[in-house]
Amino acid sequence: MNSKLNFKKLLEDNLLQAHDSEDIKIVLSGQYEKAFELLKDAEATGLFPALVGPPGVGKTILCRYFAQHRAKEQKNTNFYWLTMDESIKPSHLLGSFDPALTLQKGFCIESFNSGPLLKSMLTGGTFLANEINRATEYSQNTLLEPLEERSIGIPHLGRIKAKNDFFFICAMNLEELAGTHRLSEALKDRIKIWIRLTYPDKATELEIIRINLPEHFTVSEAELDLIYQIIEATRKNKTEIEIPASIRAGIAMAKLLGRKRALENEKAVKENASINVLLSDIVKNVLIGSIKPRPGIISDDIIEMLIKKILGT
Ligand SMILES: Nc1ncnc2c1ncn2[C@@H]1O[C@H](COP(=O)(O)OP(=O)(O)OP(=O)(O)O)[C@@H](O)[C@H]1O
Ligand SMILES: [Mg+2]
Protein backbone atom coordinates (compact mmCIF):
# COMPACT_ATOMS: atom_id res chain seq x y z
CA MET A 1 0.00 0.00 0.00
CA ASN A 2 1.30 3.46 -0.81
CA SER A 3 2.07 4.99 2.57
CA LYS A 4 2.15 8.46 1.04
CA LEU A 5 -1.57 8.43 0.39
CA ASN A 6 -3.09 11.21 2.44
CA PHE A 7 -6.58 9.99 3.23
CA LYS A 8 -7.53 13.09 5.21
CA LYS A 9 -6.80 15.24 2.16
CA LEU A 10 -8.69 12.85 -0.12
CA LEU A 11 -11.65 13.01 2.24
CA GLU A 12 -11.58 16.80 2.22
CA ASP A 13 -11.27 17.01 -1.56
CA ASN A 14 -14.16 14.65 -2.16
CA LEU A 15 -16.57 15.90 0.42
CA LEU A 16 -19.84 16.66 -1.35
CA GLN A 17 -21.55 19.76 -0.03
CA ALA A 18 -25.32 19.77 0.37
CA HIS A 19 -25.49 22.49 -2.27
CA ASP A 20 -23.28 20.77 -4.86
CA SER A 21 -25.37 20.25 -7.93
CA GLU A 22 -24.46 17.11 -9.77
CA ASP A 23 -25.40 16.48 -13.34
CA ILE A 24 -28.32 14.05 -13.15
CA LYS A 25 -28.89 12.18 -16.39
CA ILE A 26 -32.60 11.52 -16.43
CA VAL A 27 -35.19 10.59 -19.05
CA LEU A 28 -38.35 12.55 -18.36
CA SER A 29 -40.81 10.94 -20.73
CA GLY A 30 -43.74 8.57 -20.19
CA GLN A 31 -44.47 7.84 -16.54
CA TYR A 32 -41.56 10.00 -15.36
CA GLU A 33 -43.00 13.15 -16.88
CA LYS A 34 -46.35 12.55 -15.14
CA ALA A 35 -44.66 11.70 -11.84
CA PHE A 36 -42.52 14.82 -12.05
CA GLU A 37 -45.62 16.99 -12.61
CA LEU A 38 -47.29 15.34 -9.60
CA LEU A 39 -44.27 16.11 -7.44
CA LYS A 40 -44.57 19.74 -8.48
CA ASP A 41 -48.32 19.67 -7.65
CA ALA A 42 -47.47 18.20 -4.25
CA GLU A 43 -45.01 20.96 -3.52
CA ALA A 44 -47.38 23.70 -4.69
CA THR A 45 -50.17 22.39 -2.47
CA GLY A 46 -47.98 21.54 0.52
CA LEU A 47 -49.00 17.87 0.36
CA PHE A 48 -46.30 15.31 1.02
CA PRO A 49 -45.78 12.67 -1.69
CA ALA A 50 -44.57 9.06 -1.75
CA LEU A 51 -43.03 7.31 -4.73
CA VAL A 52 -43.90 3.63 -4.74
CA GLY A 53 -42.82 0.83 -7.02
CA PRO A 54 -40.61 -2.23 -7.43
CA PRO A 55 -36.80 -2.03 -7.20
CA GLY A 56 -34.92 -0.13 -9.86
CA VAL A 57 -37.77 1.73 -11.56
CA GLY A 58 -36.31 5.18 -10.95
CA LYS A 59 -37.79 6.30 -7.62
CA THR A 60 -34.55 7.64 -6.21
CA ILE A 61 -33.31 9.30 -9.38
CA LEU A 62 -36.64 11.09 -9.81
CA CYS A 63 -36.54 12.36 -6.21
CA ARG A 64 -32.98 13.56 -6.62
CA TYR A 65 -33.86 15.30 -9.86
CA PHE A 66 -36.94 16.94 -8.34
CA ALA A 67 -34.96 18.15 -5.33
CA GLN A 68 -32.39 19.63 -7.68
CA HIS A 69 -35.06 21.30 -9.81
CA ARG A 70 -36.62 22.77 -6.67
CA ALA A 71 -33.25 23.92 -5.49
CA LYS A 72 -32.63 25.77 -8.76
CA GLU A 73 -36.07 27.42 -8.73
CA GLN A 74 -35.87 28.59 -5.18
CA LYS A 75 -32.16 29.21 -4.96
CA ASN A 76 -32.32 26.90 -2.00
CA THR A 77 -29.90 24.16 -2.76
CA ASN A 78 -30.29 21.91 0.22
CA PHE A 79 -31.17 18.32 -0.39
CA TYR A 80 -30.70 15.65 2.24
CA TRP A 81 -31.57 11.99 2.14
CA LEU A 82 -31.38 8.94 4.26
CA THR A 83 -31.94 5.34 3.27
CA MET A 84 -33.82 3.68 6.08
CA ASP A 85 -33.44 0.22 7.55
CA GLU A 86 -33.76 -1.56 10.88
CA SER A 87 -30.68 0.12 12.29
CA ILE A 88 -31.84 3.71 11.69
CA LYS A 89 -32.63 5.44 14.99
CA PRO A 90 -34.41 8.77 15.49
CA SER A 91 -31.00 10.31 16.21
CA HIS A 92 -29.87 9.45 12.66
CA LEU A 93 -32.71 11.64 11.41
CA LEU A 94 -32.60 14.41 13.95
CA GLY A 95 -29.03 14.53 15.19
CA SER A 96 -27.43 14.01 18.57
CA PHE A 97 -25.32 15.63 21.26
CA ASP A 98 -21.57 15.34 20.77
CA PRO A 99 -20.36 13.53 23.92
CA ALA A 100 -17.10 15.48 24.28
CA LEU A 101 -18.75 18.87 23.72
CA THR A 102 -21.64 17.96 26.01
CA LEU A 103 -19.18 17.15 28.81
CA GLN A 104 -17.60 20.57 28.38
CA LYS A 105 -20.65 22.72 27.69
CA GLY A 106 -23.65 20.67 28.76
CA PHE A 107 -26.78 19.91 26.72
CA CYS A 108 -26.91 23.12 24.70
CA ILE A 109 -27.19 24.11 21.04
CA GLU A 110 -23.40 24.24 20.59
CA SER A 111 -23.07 20.62 21.61
CA PHE A 112 -25.72 19.41 19.17
CA ASN A 113 -24.93 17.97 15.73
CA SER A 114 -28.00 18.24 13.49
CA GLY A 115 -29.04 15.22 11.44
CA PRO A 116 -30.32 15.35 7.84
CA LEU A 117 -34.03 15.74 8.64
CA LEU A 118 -33.40 18.60 11.04
CA LYS A 119 -31.01 20.26 8.58
CA SER A 120 -33.62 20.23 5.85
CA MET A 121 -36.26 21.58 8.25
CA LEU A 122 -33.97 24.40 9.34
CA THR A 123 -32.95 25.37 5.82
CA GLY A 124 -36.29 24.79 4.09
CA GLY A 125 -34.68 22.11 1.92
CA THR A 126 -35.92 18.79 0.60
CA PHE A 127 -35.67 15.62 2.64
CA LEU A 128 -35.96 12.21 1.01
CA ALA A 129 -36.73 9.25 3.27
CA ASN A 130 -35.63 6.47 0.96
CA GLU A 131 -37.00 2.94 1.62
CA ILE A 132 -39.16 4.43 4.35
CA ASN A 133 -40.97 1.15 5.07
CA ARG A 134 -37.68 -0.45 6.12
CA ALA A 135 -37.54 1.82 9.15
CA THR A 136 -38.92 0.58 12.44
CA GLU A 137 -42.11 2.15 13.74
CA TYR A 138 -39.97 3.84 16.40
CA SER A 139 -38.08 5.75 13.71
CA GLN A 140 -41.15 6.27 11.53
CA ASN A 141 -42.76 8.03 14.48
CA THR A 142 -40.04 10.67 14.46
CA LEU A 143 -41.54 11.88 11.19
CA LEU A 144 -45.04 12.43 12.55
CA GLU A 145 -44.50 15.84 14.13
CA PRO A 146 -42.42 17.34 11.30
CA LEU A 147 -45.04 16.29 8.76
CA GLU A 148 -48.07 17.48 10.72
CA GLU A 149 -46.89 20.44 12.79
CA ARG A 150 -43.77 21.34 10.79
CA SER A 151 -41.81 21.29 14.04
CA ILE A 152 -39.84 18.80 16.08
CA GLY A 153 -39.08 18.38 19.76
CA ILE A 154 -35.41 17.84 20.60
CA PRO A 155 -34.72 16.62 24.15
CA HIS A 156 -32.95 19.30 26.24
CA LEU A 157 -33.33 21.93 23.50
CA GLY A 158 -37.09 22.28 23.03
CA ARG A 159 -39.31 22.54 19.94
CA ILE A 160 -37.68 23.61 16.71
CA LYS A 161 -39.78 25.13 13.91
CA ALA A 162 -39.28 24.20 10.23
CA LYS A 163 -38.82 26.87 7.61
CA ASN A 164 -41.84 27.29 5.34
CA ASP A 165 -40.10 25.71 2.34
CA PHE A 166 -39.34 22.43 4.11
CA PHE A 167 -40.48 19.62 1.82
CA PHE A 168 -40.61 15.89 2.45
CA ILE A 169 -40.65 13.03 -0.07
CA CYS A 170 -40.48 9.33 0.65
CA ALA A 171 -39.84 6.32 -1.55
CA MET A 172 -40.69 2.68 -0.98
CA ASN A 173 -41.42 -0.66 -2.54
CA LEU A 174 -44.81 -1.70 -1.17
CA GLU A 175 -44.68 -5.22 -2.57
CA GLU A 176 -41.46 -6.23 -0.88
CA LEU A 177 -42.06 -7.85 2.47
CA ALA A 178 -38.62 -9.13 3.51
CA GLY A 179 -36.89 -6.74 5.88
CA THR A 180 -39.69 -4.22 5.77
CA HIS A 181 -42.09 -2.94 8.38
CA ARG A 182 -45.60 -1.79 7.88
CA LEU A 183 -45.94 1.89 7.33
CA SER A 184 -47.71 3.07 10.44
CA GLU A 185 -51.28 4.24 9.85
CA ALA A 186 -50.46 7.62 11.38
CA LEU A 187 -47.59 8.15 8.95
CA LYS A 188 -49.61 6.85 6.00
CA ASP A 189 -52.30 9.38 6.78
CA ARG A 190 -49.81 12.23 6.54
CA ILE A 191 -48.63 11.20 3.08
CA LYS A 192 -51.27 12.49 0.74
CA ILE A 193 -50.07 11.86 -2.81
CA TRP A 194 -49.08 8.33 -3.84
CA ILE A 195 -47.14 8.22 -7.08
CA ARG A 196 -46.77 4.78 -8.57
CA LEU A 197 -43.82 3.99 -10.80
CA THR A 198 -43.52 0.74 -12.65
CA TYR A 199 -41.37 -0.69 -15.44
CA PRO A 200 -41.37 1.96 -18.18
CA ASP A 201 -42.65 1.54 -21.72
CA LYS A 202 -40.16 0.20 -24.25
CA ALA A 203 -39.18 3.53 -25.82
CA THR A 204 -38.54 5.12 -22.41
CA GLU A 205 -36.57 2.15 -21.10
CA LEU A 206 -34.37 2.02 -24.20
CA GLU A 207 -33.71 5.74 -23.88
CA ILE A 208 -32.73 5.24 -20.24
CA ILE A 209 -30.29 2.50 -21.24
CA ARG A 210 -28.85 4.70 -24.00
CA ILE A 211 -28.18 7.70 -21.74
CA ASN A 212 -26.56 5.49 -19.13
CA LEU A 213 -24.02 4.10 -21.60
CA PRO A 214 -20.56 5.68 -21.60
CA GLU A 215 -20.08 7.77 -24.73
CA HIS A 216 -17.49 5.55 -26.38
CA PHE A 217 -19.68 2.46 -26.02
CA THR A 218 -21.87 1.83 -29.01
CA VAL A 219 -24.62 -0.71 -28.95
CA SER A 220 -26.80 -1.01 -32.05
CA GLU A 221 -30.56 -0.61 -31.99
CA ALA A 222 -30.99 -4.28 -32.93
CA GLU A 223 -28.82 -5.28 -29.97
CA LEU A 224 -30.71 -3.00 -27.61
CA ASP A 225 -33.90 -4.57 -28.88
CA LEU A 226 -32.65 -8.04 -27.98
CA ILE A 227 -31.68 -6.87 -24.50
CA TYR A 228 -35.13 -5.39 -24.05
CA GLN A 229 -36.79 -8.63 -25.19
CA ILE A 230 -34.92 -10.53 -22.47
CA ILE A 231 -35.78 -8.00 -19.79
CA GLU A 232 -39.41 -7.91 -20.86
CA ALA A 233 -39.64 -11.71 -20.84
CA THR A 234 -38.61 -11.79 -17.16
CA ARG A 235 -41.39 -9.31 -16.39
CA LYS A 236 -44.01 -11.32 -18.23
CA ASN A 237 -43.11 -14.61 -16.53
CA LYS A 238 -45.06 -13.95 -13.34
CA THR A 239 -45.64 -17.62 -12.58
CA GLU A 240 -41.93 -18.34 -12.08
CA ILE A 241 -40.41 -14.97 -11.30
CA GLU A 242 -41.28 -12.97 -8.20
CA ILE A 243 -39.02 -9.98 -8.90
CA PRO A 244 -38.06 -9.58 -12.57
CA ALA A 245 -35.08 -7.79 -14.10
CA SER A 246 -35.06 -4.07 -13.37
CA ILE A 247 -33.83 -1.18 -15.47
CA ARG A 248 -30.42 -1.67 -13.83
CA ALA A 249 -30.12 -5.15 -15.38
CA GLY A 250 -30.71 -3.78 -18.88
CA ILE A 251 -28.16 -1.02 -18.32
CA ALA A 252 -25.64 -3.58 -17.08
CA MET A 253 -26.10 -5.85 -20.10
CA ALA A 254 -25.78 -2.95 -22.53
CA LYS A 255 -22.62 -1.74 -20.76
CA LEU A 256 -20.99 -5.18 -20.94
CA LEU A 257 -21.88 -5.49 -24.60
CA GLY A 258 -20.68 -1.94 -25.28
CA ARG A 259 -17.33 -2.70 -23.66
CA LYS A 260 -16.90 -5.83 -25.79
CA ARG A 261 -17.58 -3.75 -28.89
CA ALA A 262 -15.17 -1.00 -27.80
CA LEU A 263 -12.41 -3.60 -27.24
CA GLU A 264 -13.06 -5.09 -30.65
CA ASN A 265 -12.73 -1.65 -32.25
CA GLU A 266 -9.47 -0.97 -30.40
CA LYS A 267 -7.95 -4.19 -31.56
CA ALA A 268 -9.59 -3.91 -34.97
CA VAL A 269 -10.57 -7.55 -34.78
CA LYS A 270 -14.09 -8.78 -34.87
CA GLU A 271 -15.07 -11.59 -32.58
CA ASN A 272 -16.15 -14.62 -34.47
CA ALA A 273 -18.92 -15.16 -32.03
CA SER A 274 -22.32 -14.00 -33.20
CA ILE A 275 -24.19 -11.37 -31.23
CA ASN A 276 -26.51 -14.06 -29.91
CA VAL A 277 -23.64 -16.08 -28.43
CA LEU A 278 -22.01 -12.94 -27.00
CA LEU A 279 -25.26 -11.81 -25.48
CA SER A 280 -26.14 -15.15 -23.96
CA ASP A 281 -22.95 -15.07 -21.88
CA ILE A 282 -23.72 -11.51 -20.80
CA VAL A 283 -27.31 -12.38 -19.97
CA LYS A 284 -26.14 -15.25 -17.75
CA ASN A 285 -23.66 -13.05 -15.92
CA VAL A 286 -26.18 -10.31 -15.25
CA LEU A 287 -29.47 -12.10 -14.69
CA ILE A 288 -28.42 -14.58 -11.98
CA GLY A 289 -28.56 -11.90 -9.32
CA SER A 290 -31.08 -9.66 -11.03
CA ILE A 291 -34.16 -11.84 -10.82
CA LYS A 292 -35.80 -13.41 -7.82
CA PRO A 293 -37.48 -16.70 -8.71
CA ARG A 294 -40.54 -17.94 -6.87
CA PRO A 295 -39.91 -20.60 -4.21
CA GLY A 296 -38.82 -23.93 -5.68
CA ILE A 297 -37.78 -22.42 -9.03
CA ILE A 298 -34.11 -22.25 -9.96
CA SER A 299 -32.75 -19.05 -11.54
CA ASP A 300 -30.41 -20.91 -13.89
CA ASP A 301 -33.28 -22.90 -15.39
CA ILE A 302 -35.32 -19.78 -16.13
CA ILE A 303 -32.31 -18.03 -17.64
CA GLU A 304 -31.41 -21.01 -19.85
CA MET A 305 -34.97 -21.14 -21.10
CA LEU A 306 -35.05 -17.40 -21.84
CA ILE A 307 -31.79 -17.53 -23.72
CA LYS A 308 -32.95 -20.45 -25.80
CA LYS A 309 -36.25 -18.79 -26.62
CA ILE A 310 -34.97 -15.33 -27.48
CA LEU A 311 -31.37 -15.83 -28.58
CA GLY A 312 -31.73 -19.38 -29.85
CA THR A 313 -28.44 -20.51 -28.31
N1 LIG B 1 -36.07 8.11 -15.80
C1 LIG B 1 -34.80 7.68 -15.71
N2 LIG B 1 -33.83 8.33 -16.38
C2 LIG B 1 -32.54 7.91 -16.33
N3 LIG B 1 -32.11 6.85 -15.62
C3 LIG B 1 -33.04 6.17 -14.94
C4 LIG B 1 -34.42 6.54 -14.94
N4 LIG B 1 -35.10 5.68 -14.18
C5 LIG B 1 -34.19 4.81 -13.70
N5 LIG B 1 -32.95 5.09 -14.15
C6 LIG B 1 -31.72 4.36 -13.86
O1 LIG B 1 -32.10 3.08 -13.38
C7 LIG B 1 -31.38 2.72 -12.22
C8 LIG B 1 -32.33 2.52 -11.05
O2 LIG B 1 -32.93 3.76 -10.67
P1 LIG B 1 -33.20 4.14 -9.14
O3 LIG B 1 -32.00 3.83 -8.33
O4 LIG B 1 -33.71 5.51 -9.13
O5 LIG B 1 -34.36 3.10 -8.82
P2 LIG B 1 -35.18 2.89 -7.46
O6 LIG B 1 -36.60 2.76 -7.88
O7 LIG B 1 -34.84 3.93 -6.48
O8 LIG B 1 -34.62 1.48 -7.01
P3 LIG B 1 -34.60 0.81 -5.53
O9 LIG B 1 -36.02 0.44 -5.20
O10 LIG B 1 -33.75 -0.42 -5.75
O11 LIG B 1 -33.99 1.81 -4.60
C9 LIG B 1 -30.35 3.83 -11.99
O12 LIG B 1 -29.15 3.45 -12.60
C10 LIG B 1 -30.93 5.02 -12.72
O13 LIG B 1 -29.93 5.85 -13.19
MG1 LIG C 1 -33.84 3.74 -4.58
Give the overall average pLDDT: 90
Report the CATH C-level class of the largest domain. Alpha Beta
Strand order of the largest sheet: 2-5-8-1-9
Approximate shape:
globular
Order of helical and strand elements: HHEHEHEHEHEHHEEEHEHHEHHEH
Give the number of helices.
14
Total separate domains: 2
Features:
single chain; 313 residues; alpha/beta; Rossmann fold; 2 domains; five-stranded parallel β-sheet; two-stranded antiparallel sheet; globular; binds adenosine-5'-triphosphate; binds magnesium ion
Description:
With 313 residues, this protein is of the alpha/beta class. It folds into two domains: 17-196, Rossmann fold, CATH 3.40.50; 202-311, Helicase, Ruva Protein, domain 3 (Orthogonal Bundle), CATH 1.10.8. Helix content is 47%, strand content 15%. The protein contains 14 helices and eleven strands. The strands form four sheets. It has a five-stranded parallel sheet. Strand 6 and strand 7 form a beta hairpin. Helix 11 (221-236) crosses helix 14. The chain starts with 6 loop residues before the first helix and ends with a helix. The model has no long low-confidence stretch (mean pLDDT 90). It binds adenosine-5'-triphosphate (ATP) and magnesium ion (MG). The site of magnesium ion (MG) has 4 residues, from helix 3.
Itemize the secondary structure elements and their pairings.
Elements: H1 7-13, H2 31-45, E1 48-52, H3 59-74, E2 79-83, H4 90-94, E3 95-97, H5 99-105, E4 112-114, H6 116-123, E5 126-130, H7 137-140, H8 144-149, E6 151-154, E7 158-161, E8 167-172, H9 185-190, E9 191-196, H10 202-211, H11 221-236, E10 241-243, H12 247-267, H13 275-287, E11 292-293, H14 299-311
Parallel strand pairs: 1-8, 1-9, 2-5, 5-8
Antiparallel strand pairs: 3-4, 6-7, 10-11
This protein binds adenosine-5'-triphosphate and magnesium ion.
Adenosine-5'-triphosphate binds next to α3, α10 and α12.
